TrEMBL record:
<feature type="domain" description="UspA">
    <location>
        <begin position="1"/>
        <end position="135"/>
    </location>
</feature>
<feature type="domain" description="UspA">
    <location>
        <begin position="148"/>
        <end position="287"/>
    </location>
</feature>
<dbReference type="Pfam" id="PF00582">
    <property type="entry name" value="Usp"/>
</dbReference>
<comment type="similarity">
    <text>Belongs to the universal stress protein A family.</text>
</comment>
<dbReference type="InterPro" id="IPR006016">
    <property type="entry name" value="UspA"/>
</dbReference>
<dbReference type="InterPro" id="IPR006015">
    <property type="entry name" value="Universal_stress_UspA"/>
</dbReference>
<dbReference type="InterPro" id="IPR014729">
    <property type="entry name" value="Rossmann-like_a/b/a_fold"/>
</dbReference>
<protein>
    <submittedName>
        <fullName>Universal stress protein</fullName>
    </submittedName>
</protein>
Amino acid sequence: MTRPITAGVDGSEESLAGLAWAAREAVRRGFPLRVVHAWRFQPHDAIDAGEDTQAQWVRDGLAEMARGVAERHAGLEVTTDVVEGPPAETLIAAASESEMLVLGSRGHGRVVGFLLGSVGQQVISGAARPVVRVRAGDEPSGEAAGREIVVGQQGDPEDSAAALGFAFETAAARGATVRAVRAWTLPPLFAYSPASLKMLDEAGGLEPHEKEALGEALRPWREHYPDVPVVEHVEMGSGGQVLLSVSGRAQLMVVGRRVHRTAVGARIGSVAHGMLHLADCPVAVVPHD
């Protein structure tokens, strides 16, 4: 059974941008599109409508969105699903049944930490499948030829395998170049010891090692997708800083995700968090296998 690409919508401008992005991606990959809305009955003194009536309004609105998408993309299979339940839990469950889940998010605001909203943060932290964040105002022109699929790589090959696989698959569907970015910093021992720096210089430096590590991580994906052009980008600096510096040329930013459990709940790593809030292009967050 083919998994759909799922768009979580609530009728907002942000979610409609996410729906449009999801539809274009579904067409490229030949997948069906599922449009999901998490709904709960909310009685209101000013609205004389019972639960059944409100539910029908929601279904009608979702059907109208689906018709608009189907009219723009002839042949695209579109289904809708109104699910009663908490938004975060509903979307996490929808993601588990999908190739990816696509959500909209607000543009830059005064409080950066709340760009995604609490539901978006919970979904990205809890989803077992890739989640793509699309900003309001995203346009197809951002996917023009010459713009790259940028993906962050760190650690050993298996540490970034899921993110690299997603990036190469997306690039193959779009005829795009993959820019694989590996950032590195000096260990404290080398940063504070002149003698250690001298030894490091005599050994040829750390950058050749980092380039070799990136090449090793990319090798199986180059072999599996021989027609996808690849740029290997190794640069000294923090992962977030280096990825952000090349985000202007990206049509999609792909980052891996590990979840950190804290006393106040789950949170994603700093690099993924930074890209979600600061990168202007769509951002895909891919959980590690």
